[in-house]
């Protein structure tokens, strides 16, 4: 029996030598010290050992048990240490590596230009007035001196919000920011119709037209409108204000010129060109060799429009202008296709 215990001990310790990880160690523990192990069999059979040997065998069996448990504990510590070393090696983490930067968004190039324009106009005393994007035919056209069936409506084909509804005053997406002129004048004239206050505002926002989308025309675009109404406002105020605007926007040397144009809501009407800031007026591909870039439409507010806004045209005059931030951004950055603006291609947008 003592011989057998020596064999059990030797076999177990021998097997323990080749145990290399916790899983195998668990297997060894069950096999050599568990309920079905040879050692446990010895303990179970101790009653059948001859009385005079029983003490010695019991003592020896206990020694084996203690020895195996000690070996197990020692092995477990070794394995744990080895596993820790291995995981440190394999899951190596270089805490000195620089972090990955967060990608943060930027301001859209159209918005950048829009804000720049509004900032300059604010410095010149034009306060922002925001008006609605869904308008009635009345505000978008009729009050602006486009009667029903007027041919100038053709230039501003519209998205109608209601197909049924009020036949002669349907809702539509505004085709320009000019309806805000009427809303601002009416708001100012409310409560003081005989003596309405002067107005000097900028009207920014998105406009919509039912266009064929091409590199030069989109179905949505921003406009910034300007409106000044008061007593003794003349065409030279318009020219002076807009020339000053051009110098602030395009540089101190920016020259301007005014060409006659027609809009139903202004009389007389003009378009302002600025000397090409890319070639300095020499003539290049952007200004199509002319040396001038068309920047905005403008004019003296038509008497019918003043009237519609609640301002007596015999006493008050005013000027208005409207420009497109996307167009200005295209000129400034030599962007060849207007579809980039709402195409949401981050490769384009990240450049600004
Ligand atoms: N509303 C005009 C357009 O969209 C621009 C404009 C505004 C012209 C104000 C003159 C005065 O084309």
- State the CATH architecture of the largest domain: 2-Layer Sandwich
Strand order of the largest sheet: 1-4-5-9-8-7-6
Q: Which H/E pattern describes the elements? A: HHHHHEEHEHEEHEEEHEHHH
Beginning-to-end CA distance, first to last residue: 90 Å
Stretches where pLDDT is under 50 for at least 5 consecutive residues are: none
**Biggest sheet character:** 7 strands, mixed
The total of helices stands at 12
Strand content: 15-25%
Number of strands: 9
Question: What's the CATH H-level homologous superfamily of the largest domain?
Answer: Bira Bifunctional Protein, Domain 2
Q: What is the level 1 CATH name of the largest domain?
A: Alpha Beta
Report the C-alpha radius of gyration, rounded. 44 Å
For this structure, the CATH topology of the largest domain is BirA Bifunctional Protein, domain 2
> What is the count of distinct domains?
2
Oligomer: single chain
Coarse shape: rod-shaped
Task: Name the ligand types.
Answer: phenylalanine
């Amino acid at each position: 029996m003592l011989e057998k215990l020596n064999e059990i001990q030797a076999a177990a310790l021998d097997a323990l030598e080749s145990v290399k990880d916790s899983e195998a160690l668990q297997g060894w523990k069950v096999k050599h010290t568990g309920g079905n192990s040879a050692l446990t069999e010895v303990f179970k059979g101790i009653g059948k050992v001859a009385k005079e040997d029983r003490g010695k065998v019991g003592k020896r069996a206990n020694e084996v048990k203690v020895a195996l448990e000690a070996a197990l504990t020692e092995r477990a510590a070794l394995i744990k240490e080895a596993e820790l070393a291995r995981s440190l090696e394999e899951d190596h983490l270089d805490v000195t590596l620089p972090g990955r930067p967060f990608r943060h968004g930027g301001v859209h190039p159209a918005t950048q230009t829009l804000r720049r324009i509004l900032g300059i106009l604010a410095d010149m005393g034009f306060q922002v007035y925001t008006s609605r994007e869904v308008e009635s035919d009345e505000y978008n056209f009729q009050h602006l001196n486009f009667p029903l069936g007027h041919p100038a409506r053709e230039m501003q084909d519209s998205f109608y919000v209601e197909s049924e509804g009020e036949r002669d005053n349907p809702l539509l997406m505004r085709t320009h920011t000019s309806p805000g002129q009427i809303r601002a004048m009416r708001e100012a004239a409310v409560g003081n119709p005989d003596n309405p206050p002067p107005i000097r505002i900028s009207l920014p926002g998105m406009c919509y037209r039912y266009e064929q989308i091409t590199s030069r025309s989109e179905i949505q675009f921003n406009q910034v409108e300007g409106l000044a109404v008061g007593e003794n406002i003349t065409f030279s105020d318009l020219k002076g204000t807009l020339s000053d605007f051009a110098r602030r926007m395009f540089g101190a040397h920016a020259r301007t010129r005014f060409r006659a144009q027609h809009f139903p809501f202004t009389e007389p009407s003009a378009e302002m060109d600025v000397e090409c800031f890319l070639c300095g007026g020499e003539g290049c591909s952007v200004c199509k060799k002319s040396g001038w870039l068309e920047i905005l439409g403008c004019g003296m507010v038509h008497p019918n429009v003043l009237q519609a806004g609640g301002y007596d045209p015999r006493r008050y005059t005013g000027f208005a202008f409207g420009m497109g931030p996307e167009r200005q951004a295209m000129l400034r950055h030599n962007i060849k296709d207007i579809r980039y603006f709402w195409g949401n291609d981050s490769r384009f947008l990240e450049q600004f």
